[in-house]
Amino acid sequence: MNLFESLRVALRGLANNKMRTTLTMLGMIIGVGVVIIVVAIGEGATQRVTEAVNSMGTNLLNVTSNRNRLRIGTAVSRTSVASTATTNTTPINSLTLHDAETIAHNFTKTVDAVAPQIDSDLQIRLGSVATTTEVAGTTLDYPYVKKTDIAKGRYFIQQEMDDTLKVCVVGPTVAEHLTGDPHADLTGKTLSINRQHFLVLGMLTARGATATGQDQDDIILVPITTAMRRVLNRQALNNILIRCTSPEMMPLATEQVSAFLRNRHHLTPPFPQNDDFRIRSQSELMQTQQSVTNTMTSMLSIVAVVSLIVGGIGIMNIMLVSVTERTREIGIRKAIGATPRDILVQFLIESAIISLLGGLIGIGIGVGGATLLASIGGWNTIVSMTAILTAVIVSAGIGIFFGIYPASKAAALHPIEALRFE
Questions:
Q1: Partner of 103 at 20 to 30 A CA spacing, among 16, 211, 375, 419?
Q2: Is the dihedral of CA 342, 343, 347, 348 positive or negative?
Q3: How high does pLDDT run on average in the chain?
């Protein structure tokens, strides 16, 4: 019997039991569909992390203050964050504006620009509409360090920073919250920030969400001197953003900044355990996010693989039932000349068809589910051809693997015993 004839007989056998064949496919449909959706979510998350990191550059360092570690004399003790955030004086271990200025001046070979930042979530108001947003005090180098452009109007200048003027630059999300218009331009208008009137100088270009999902456009920038003296009434910085001269210089810049801060804050070994600051790079952030994404993808993939295995076991079970039901048919075919190889190939084709059809339907459901998540749920999903081809190969392979035992059992039947089977 040729391969075409075996395929025709296999299709006829499956068509005679449509309901049973459909139910047998369910395991493969669910398993393959879940695999496609999981891989699409994982690929989309990886792309989002990569784009978010690349948008700010791979040579960016973020120095933050470890405020729960406050030096008292030569010892190190624990205290609350709140106690350091509300005082008018700068705690010993806090990052200061002088720290940022010294780093920018002393390490010119490794540090390209520095943008200190002090921020807090505050209530803002435009007319009768109020909302809460992040108000960040920073310097003139912030747009360059963060790769942020001004869409309309202008950024504040050195004179305005020296005079602690109440001026600001607004993100598009803030404007949307205050006006209901995502394209609103607040340039020239006056905002109330923490019950003080600020003139809007310009609008920031939309940047979207960060790798952690934080909206980068929900922010108002003010001169750092204004934030310290008129808005937040504190000197301790939240963080210092450092743009290195190149990605290759980042390790050296990290060492230089660490040594400088340890010396300035009079820290004692061991390091980094006793450091009152933390330095993180964009590449570290990307690795952390990708690690979390890969872990979640792996866990969900295990569930999908279990579903595929269950589907394969279901195929084997149904094929064993089919062999039992068609024992007399097998005996007749062998009596008129069919070889054990013909019987083996026929049942393997049947199991492969069940698995392959289930896989193809699962691919359709997976692609549709990923598209639905992207359009309705707002998820960033990417359906790759590699995942689709892998799903097709795996589904067909599972059908053949789990069909070997039933097919071998059918091929091993003795013709006379098969003809006598009731």
A1: 211
A2: negative
A3: 82
Distances (CA, A) of 108 to 248, 270, 272: 15, 28, 24
Pick from 16-20, 117-121, 189-193, 320-324: least confident: 16-20
Distance CA 337, CA 155 (A): 89
Let me know if 30 is exposed, middle or buried by CB neighbors in 10 A (0-12, 13-18, 19+).
buried
Q: Please give the pLDDT value at position 93.
A: 54
Q: Which amino acid is at 259?
A: A
This prediction's pTM: 0.62
Placement of tokens 């808005």 in the chain: 231
Residue positions counted in the chain: 422
pLDDT of residue 68: 52
Residue 262: both structure tokens together? 């340890």
239 with 117: CB under 8 angstroms? Answer: yes
How far is the C-alpha of 185 from the C-alpha of 200, rounded, in Å?
A: 10
Alpha helices in 326-384 (DSSP H): 327-335, 340-375
How many whole angstroms separate alpha carbon 273 and alpha carbon 96?
21
DSSP 8-state class, residue 248 = G
Is the pLDDT at 86 greater than 60, yes or no? no
CA distance 76 to 73: 8
pLDDT at 394 over 50: yes
Helix, strand, coil tally for the chain in percent (to 5):
55, 20, 25
Angle subtended at Cα 20 by Cα 18 and Cα 22, rounded to the nearest 5 degrees? 65
The candidate with the shortest Cα–Cα distance to 249, out of 421, 111, 125, is 111
For residue 415, say if its preceding peptide bond is cis, omega within 30 degrees of 0. no
